[in-house]
Design goal:
There is one protein chain. This protein is 45% helix and 11% strand. The protein is built from eleven helices and ten strands. The chain has helices at residues 2-39, 47-60, 67-91, 131-144, 171-184, 198-201, 218-225, 241-253, 281-288, 307-317, 343-353; strands at residues 106-108, 111-113, 120-124, 150-153, 188-191, 207-210, 231-234, 259-263, 293-296, 321-325. The strands form two sheets. Strands 3-4-5-6-7-8-9-10 form an eight-stranded parallel β-barrel, surrounded by four helices. Strands 1-2 form a two-stranded antiparallel ribbon. It starts with a helix and ends with a helix. The structure holds phosphoenolpyruvate and manganese (II) ion.
C-alpha cells in the first residue's frame, strides 16, 4: 500500500517539476511578447486573447477537471504572467533605470542637470512681457545666482485656458530672447507647443519645454525625439508617473536621450493650492528611471507663501532642480500674477539653495 502511494507521489513530484519547467518556458515567451509589445507601444494586456486561450483549453479538455476548475486555474496563471509582462514592459523602456550605465545628466548650454550636480534653478517670468521686465530680472539673477546653476525661464508661446488671454510674445519674444542672450550669456528654457516652431527655437532656446497640456501630444514628442536639443517634459496634471515615463519614452525612442522630467502638480480635490504637488513622484522616478527630475514649485502650489517650504521638500526628495516663476511686479503680470514671486520673495527662498549666504 505504502509502496503504491510512494509511486504515485513520485509521479506527482515529477509532474510538478515538468509543470514548473513548462511555466518557466511560458514565462520566457511572455517576456519576449512584452518586449515586442513595448517596442511598438501596444498594450501589455489583451483580454480577448485570454478569452480565446480559455475557449481552446475547454475544447481540448479530457474531462478530469471541470470547466470551472480549468477556467479558475488558467485565469490565475494569466494574471501572474500579466504582472510579469507589465514589469518587463517597464524594464524594456529605454528610459528605465536598468537601461543606462549611469544616471543621465543633461547639459543645458553649460548648466548640467542631474544627479551628482548641485540642484539647478530654472527661474523667470511666466511669460516674457517686455525687455524692461526681462532685464530687471536678469540683472538680479546673473548677479545673485551661480552661472552654472541658473536657467532663465520665460514663456513665449503660452497655452492658455481661455483663447482670449495673453498668449505670449511669440516671434517677437524669440527675437528679444536672442538679444538678451547676447548680453547676459544665459541658457533659456521656453515652452514649445508645436513641431512647427522647431526651426525658430533652434539656436535660441536651449531647453525646449513640453507643457503639462502637451504631455500626451505624441506627434510633438516624436518630433522632439528626432532633435538632440534637451527637452523638459512636464507631467500632465492628469497623468500617472508611469504615463509620464511612457511619454518620455516617445522622445527617447526616437534617439533623443537629453530629457529632464518635471513634476508640476496633479489635480486632486484639494482647493487651497492650485494643484497638488506629488512629491513622491521624485523618488518614484529616481527608482525607476535614469532621467533627471525637477519640481515646479509655482504651478504646483500657485502660492508664493509656500514656495520656500516646497522648494526645501523638492530638494529633500532628491529633485535635480526647481522651476519657479518670478516677476518684478507680480500684480502687474499678464499671466499667473497671483503665483509669481517678487524678487524679494525669491531672495528669501534662495536660502534653501545657499543656506550659508
Ligand atoms: C509653464 O511652465 O509655463 C506652464 C504653463 O506650466 P504647465 O505646463 O506645467 O502648466
Ligand atoms: Mn505660469
Amino acid at each position: 500500500m505504502d509502496e503504491e502511494l510512494d509511486k504515485i507521489r513520485r509521479q506527482i513530484d515529477d509532474l510538478n517539476l515538468r509543470l514548473l519547467r513548462l511555466l518557466e518556458e511560458r514565462a520566457d515567451l511572455v517576456k519576449q511578447v512584452a518586449a515586442v509589445k513595448s517596442s511598438i507601444q501596444a498594450p501589455a494586456c489583451d483580454p480577448k486573447r485570454e478569452d480565446r486561450m480559455i475557449t481552446r483549453l475547454l475544447e481540448q479538455s479530457r474531462g478530469s477537471l471541470t470547466d470551472g476548475q480549468i477556467i479558475g486555474l488558467f485565469r490565475h496563471i494569466f494574471s501572474v504572467f500579466r504582472n510579469l509582462a507589465e514589469q518587463v514592459g517597464l524594464e524594456g523602456l529605454g528610459v528605465h533605470l536598468s537601461r543606462a550605465p549611469s544616471a543621465t545628466v543633461v547639459d543645458v548650454a553649460g548648466v548640467k542637470i542631474g544627479p551628482g550636480r548641485p540642484p539647478a534653478i530654472l527661474a523667470g517670468p511666466c511669460a516674457l512681457e517686455s525687455q524692461e521686465q526681462a532685464e530687471e530680472l536678469l540683472a538680479y539673477f546673473t548677479r545673485e545666482l551661480p552661472a552654472d546653476r541658473f536657467v532663465f525661464r520665460c514663456g513665449l508661446y503660452k497655452p492658455r485656458t481661455s483663447p482670449y488671454s495673453f498668449a505670449g510674445l511669440g516671434p517677437q519674444g524669440l527675437e528679444l530672447v536672442a538679444r538678451l542672450k547676447k548680453i547676459y550669456k544665459i541658457p533659456v528654457v521656453s515652452e514649445i507647443t508645436s513641431p512647427k516652431l522647431m526651426d525658430n527655437f533652434e539656436g535660441v532656446i536651449d531647453l525646449w519645454q513640453v507643457g503639462a497640456r502637451n504631455m500626451t501630444n505624441f506627434e510633438l514628442l516624436r518630433e522632439l525625439g528626432r532633435t538632440r536639443t534637451p527637452i523638459l517634459l512636464k507631467r500632465s496634471y492628469a497623468a500617472t508617473v508611469e504615463e509620464l515615463l511612457l511619454a518620455a519614452e516617445y522622445i527617447y525612442a526616437q534617439g533623443n536621450p537629453h530629457i529632464i522630467l518635471c513634476e508640476r502638480g496633479i489635480r486632486t480635490f484639494e482647493s487651497w493650492t492650485r494643484f497638488t504637488l506629488d512629491i513622491s513622484a521624485v523618488p518614484l522616478v529616481k527608482s525607476t528611471s535614469h532621467l533627471p527630475i525637477i519640481v515646479d514649485i509655482s504651478h504646483s502650489t500657485g502660492r508664493p507663501d509656500l514656495a520656500g517650504a516646497v522648494a526645501g521638500a523638492a530638494l529633500a526628495a532628491g529633485a535635480d532642480g526647481i522651476m519657479v516663476e518670478v516677476h518684478p511686479q507680480p500684480d502687474r503680470a499678464l499671466s499667473d500674477g497671483f503665483q509669481q514671486l517678487s524678487l524679494d520673495q525669491f531672495a528669501r527662498i534662495k536660502k534653501v539653495f545657499f543656506p550659508s549666504k
